[in-house]
């Protein structure tokens, strides 16, 4: 560990972690095995960081939320395993008005200057491209990709395997597997490339395309679309997840 860094006496840093110069590790922070802080990384607590996470320079992790409701409560941030946080990434702790916790899962890639706000839940294996950001209380599933400068409004849900194009502004829920683009966002099909890269067969993709057409091309009401979706072969991989993301939309489905 660099003697040019500050580590609070209450912080717990695994002996296998690498702490570069000019880092700040604050009170109530836990840094797991084989983590690496390149340099100039700020981590405030309470924050719990699992193993094998890499933080590039100028990341700010576990900072107080700028939400005006926040009054200094001991909220927290939980980070899983194997994430990569590139230059200037920021993540805030939660608020007591929600569950007091911001959660980041495993094996995500957060590119330069991307942002995860208070009370968000980010799953596993997602990619946040440069300058993409999610506002407070946003849920992101697994294997989703946010294109550069994509912005997600608070309380939205982004389903697993979803994809957002460059400079997309999203104010409603995106179902699993759906690809959106433009400002304001509009659906432009399924994330077929993402499904192929993650082992979906041609038959499984074909069923999801049928499901997409039911929701987006047939002119059905959402209630009728859901009824028609449940008539498909729900044992096909991914279809249950697509249907659930449509049924469980709380902010309203982007259509």
How does this structure look, described?
The chain has 255 residues and is an alpha/beta fold. It has 2 domains: 6-190, Hexapeptide repeat proteins (UDP N-Acetylglucosamine Acyltransferase, domain 1), CATH 2.160.10; 195-247, Udp N-acetylglucosamine O-acyltransferase, Domain 2, CATH 1.20.1180. 15% of the residues lie in helices and 27% in strands. It is built from 4 helices and 27 strands. It has helices spanning 192-197, 202-216, 222-229, 239-247; strands spanning 6-7, 12-13, 18-19, 24-25, 29-31, 36-37, 42-43, 47-49, 54-55, 60-63, 76-79, 84-85, 90-92, 101-104, 109-110, 115-116, 121-122, 127-128, 133-134, 139-140, 145-146, 151-152, 157-158, 163-164, 169-170, 178-181, 186-190. The strands form 3 sheets. A 10-stranded mixed sheet has the order 3-6-9-12-15-18-21-24-26-27. Strands 1-4-7-10-13-16-19-22-25 form a 9-stranded parallel sheet, with no helix packed on it. It is elongated, with a radius of gyration of 19 Å. The termini are far apart. The mean pLDDT is 95.
